[in-house]
User: Which sequence fits this backbone?
């Protein structure tokens, strides 16, 4: 398929590469020209503006956004609204709020542009392993974009979740679970470290052990094992993590309402 990719950060770049390997034709754009130059070397067509991007994609166009949620995504959609035509599709693969999806579908639908929201999980390893895709929007458009989803995801790795917003809603809950799991692992290893046995425990080996048939096994624990191998006590890691507010701001009020 023909597709435009807007945003060549850690996720967007590797997703574009995976699509290229799947023999899709990709036209790519990023605010940094050097990112566009890089993906061109890997077989994509470069576009150094949204106007150029739109002109280089065959109609009906499909443009996938991998941008930070909020203003960057919103501004880009506003620009594309004036450039695209009836039957074209905008796919938002970032961590947008599902309420924004509903509003954007109505805005774009008024001029005949289709909108699909896709929650994407997979991180830096998605290029090799594939991406878990949670999709919301018109089911006919979902089926039309099936070849893209099939290339990006591993087997059974994508799902139609429902009407617009459903994909990002499922991804929001997914992220809440992820953060809770990370907090639990962190607290657990901290307890081990503070115990009388902490000085003799190899935390990398403990993490590896727990991934052998234990009910707490997970990919996150595999990543913890790798981290402990590099830094046995994580002494080089600062006790600070950037927070977008995605789960606290968006998910917790829902729990309060439902309770």
Assistant:
């Amino acid at each position: 398929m023909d597709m435009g990719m807007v945003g060549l950060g850690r996720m967007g770049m590797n997703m574009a590469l995976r699509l290229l390997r799947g023999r899709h034709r990709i036209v790519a754009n990023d605010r940094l020209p050097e990112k566009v130059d890089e993906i061109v070397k890997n077989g994509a067509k470069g576009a150094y503006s949204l106007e150029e991007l739109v002109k280089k994609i065959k109609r009906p166009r499909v443009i996938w956004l991998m941008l930070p949620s909020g203003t960057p995504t919103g501004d880009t959609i506003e620009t594309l609204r004036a450039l695209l035509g009836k039957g074209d599709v905008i796919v938002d693969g970032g961590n947008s709020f599902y309420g924004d999806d509903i509003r954007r579908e109505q805005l774009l639908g008024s001029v005949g542009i289709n909108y699909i929201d896709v929650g994407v999980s997979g991180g830096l390893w998605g290029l090799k392993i594939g991406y878990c895709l949670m999709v919301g929007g018109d089911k006919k458009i979902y089926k039309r974009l099936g070849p893209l989803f099939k290339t990006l995801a591993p087997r059974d790795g994508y799902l139609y979740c429902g009407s617009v917003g459903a994909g990002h809603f499922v991804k929001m809950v997914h992220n809440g679970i992820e953060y809770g799991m990370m907090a639990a692992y962190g607290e657990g290893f901290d307890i081990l470290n503070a115990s009388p046995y902490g000085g003799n425990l190899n935390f990398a080996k403990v993490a590896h052990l727990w991934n052998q048939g234990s009910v707490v096994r997970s990919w996150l624990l595999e990543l913890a094992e790798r981290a402990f191998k590099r830094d046995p006590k994580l002494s080089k890691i600062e006790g600070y993590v950037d927070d977008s507010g995605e789960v606290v701001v968006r998910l917790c009020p829902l729990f309060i309402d439902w309770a």
Observations:
- The radius of gyration is 20 Å.
- The chain is about 50% helix and 15% strand.
